[in-house]
Input
Amino acid sequence: MSRPSSRSPSGRDGLPVTIVHACLREGRGGSPTAVVDEASAAGTGRPLTDEERRRVPALAGTSHAVFLSDGRGPVGGGDEPPAAPARFFTTEGELPACGHGTVAALAFLAARADHGEYRAGLRVSGRAVEGRAVPGAPTSFDVTFGTGPVRLREPTQEELALLLPLLGLPAAAGPGARVATLGRPRLLVPVTTRSALASLSPSPGPLAAACDRLGLLGCFVHSPGPTTARVAARMFAPSIGVTEDIVNVNSSACLAAHLLARHGTPRIDVDMGDALGRPSTVTAGARRGLAGLPVDVTGVAKLGQVLRLPR
Output
């Protein structure tokens, strides 16, 4: 397998960071995600602090970064796949989970293993996330992993009254909205057309303040696509330092769970990133479980350049 290219803006002794483009659509776009193997980083000096981890996304030009305690992952006993502790950061701080960061991390681990289909696990916020990565085009992988169960509820009137005007949406959008929790809660809001979705331009400051007040990650606005199994979406999450996410895998999983519960739709393709010039797609298939609605998600990831960043 060919290896990603490398450049060293801060010299040969900088922090090694691999850029992985997560959830490409037809080989293009995707969300650039910084992946750091902290075992390799240890060779550049003392262990990273959380403040240094927060700086990596800005230095790498990405919205998110994932930090693996051991980039190769310790091998479990029996039939257990390798596992690696993973932590996710934006410039605002640590996240309990990150779907496209998980896609990026699994592709990174598969490239390191370099032996065809790769089964692996991540330890995220105290729970195991198992997935697999299948090689595709050079340095690309089809990555699938299972989320935890999604919980759904009706939004409160306070939530709708605060958030819908900030999104520039009418109160009529309220009846189809849901609050979905996967790691953290977020508001799912439908709009009727893709043109209405494309026209949204919420102000980050007020939206961040409202989401912080309500304890929400952000707002995931979606619209119907050409078929009932394909939708378009945009994720606004300024309270975690991301004005608009190129792709949001966990919110796509939340939407899949909602559409299964409401309409019986078992599988969807979610197109995101078009407003940002980074076309991205997530496939999400939900099923009914004992404690909620677990979802399997799939995205294509491609390894990019390796940077050397200052610490």
Summary: Residues 1-11, 71-78 have pLDDT under 50 and may be disordered.
